[in-house]
Amino acid sequence: MLVLNGPNLGRLGSREPDVYGATSYAGLVESCRTLGEELGFDVEVRETNDEGELVRWLHEAADGKIPVVINPGAFTHYSYAMRDAAAQRTAPLIEVHISNPYAREEFRHTSVIAAVATGTVAGFGIGSYRLALRALAEEISA
């Protein structure tokens, strides 16, 4: 199972803690891996500021039939390349956001990824990842 993170997510803990909380990126990684183990899955967490790298990771997931939790960050709102890569999925893909995009600036209200994702979880802080991992586990077992 892959947990993919887009731009600026490696700055968790120091980046706008009033929006993204105080948990560090290392804390997010540990939380995802720990819950993955509890659910019986090996979870690999990755982060990049590079759109092309995220697209390549989505291709890797599609080719390997690997379930994905993805927080595309700002790419959520405009990356048609990422949307097209996500549309090639061969396993469940859950879009995740720490904050609630609909409670923020208007430009954040549109996700080009949502229409090709299995589902979206947003607005529960780092807990959004835990909810998404549980949703993936249910999708896989269904």
Strands side by side in the biggest sheet: 2-1-3-4-5
Q: How do the SSEs run, as a string of H and E?
A: EHHEHEHEEH
- The share of residues in extended strands comes to 5-15%
Radius of gyration: 14 Å
Distance between termini? Answer: 16 Å
Structural class: alpha/beta
Mean pLDDT: 89
User: What is the β-strand count?
Assistant: 5
Report low-confidence residues grouped into runs of 5 or more.
Answer: none
User: What form results from the Cα inertia axes?
Assistant: globular
**Largest sheet descriptor:** 5 strands, parallel
Layout: helices, strands, pairs:
Layout: E1 2-5, H1 17-20, H2 25-39, E2 44-47, H3 51-64, E3 68-71, H4 80-87, E4 93-97, E5 119-122, H5 127-141
Parallel strand pairs: 1-2, 1-3, 3-4, 4-5
Helix pairs in contact: 2-5, 3-4
Describe the structure.
Strands 2-1-3-4-5 form a 5-stranded parallel β-sheet, with helices on both faces. By secondary structure, it is α/β, with parallel strands linked by helices. It has 5 helices and 5 strands, in the order E-H-H-E-H-E-H-E-E-H. Strand 3 (68-71), helix 4 and strand 4 form a beta-alpha-beta unit.
Key descriptive features of the protein:
alpha/beta, five-stranded parallel beta sheet
Short overview:
39% of the residues lie in helices and 15% in strands. The protein has 142 residues and is α/β, with parallel strands linked by helices. It has a five-stranded parallel beta sheet with strand order 2-1-3-4-5, with helices on both faces.
